[in-house]
Amino acid sequence: KVLTEILIPIDEHGEMLINFMGYPSSASFGTTSTYPVRSYSRYASAPPGSDPETWDNTLGMANKIVMLGAFSQGMAEDQKPTPFGLMFGVEIHANAVNTILMGNFLRYAPFWLSLLILFGMVMLTAFVTGRLSTVWSLVALVVVLALYFGAVLVLFDYYAYILTLSAPLIGAFLCFL
């Protein structure tokens, strides 16, 4: 589709949350990769020529976004921590470009919603523990916490929406204690 502009949600520091698509890619043959990895030396040693019809299919780059960067241990100190483990900088940039092109931006829940959820979880726990025995209160607490955890996962996976997880869980648990 053709867009006249893309609005990228950034914070007050000009930073964007990257929606990572998967585990780090590997340049090794036969391994699964989130993004295709090709050796630059393969292109540099045998330039494909000016006629795209004669190019090897594995070397083709027509209508592709190509990113160049270090992708080998010891080549550069370019590995950074991500939610999927260490990734090279060029792959982090590929994930950022993918987030922008797909429009799959991550969004934090507003602060007031996080406070409302925290208040609701603590009040629900207080209400339940005041009316049930300790054992049944613990069972109810575990069920409520599991349901909240599931809701947080579903909202993140399907709607790219980030809810605070730790504060409501800790608040409800401390209220139970």
Descriptive terms for the model:
5 helices, single chain, 177 residues, two-stranded antiparallel ribbon, elongated, mainly alpha
Describe the model.
By secondary structure, the protein is mainly α. It contains five helices and four strands. The radius of gyration is 24 Å and the shape is elongated.
Give a nutshell description of this structure.
The chain has 177 residues and is mainly α. The protein is 44% helix and 7% strand. α3 (111-131) runs antiparallel to α4, α3 runs parallel beside α5 and α4 packs antiparallel against α5 (166-176).
How many helices? The count is: 5
- Report the span from N to C terminus: 54 Å
Write down how many β-strands occur, each being a DSSP E stretch of 2 or more residues.
Answer: 4
Q: What is the typical, i.e. mean, pLDDT?
A: 86
Which regions have little confidence, pLDDT < 50, spanning 5+ residues? none
Topology overview:
Layout: H1 40-45, E1 79-82, E2 85-88, H2 89-102, E3 107-108, H3 111-131, H4 134-159, E4 161-162, H5 166-176
Parallel strand pairs: 3-4
Antiparallel strand pairs: 1-2
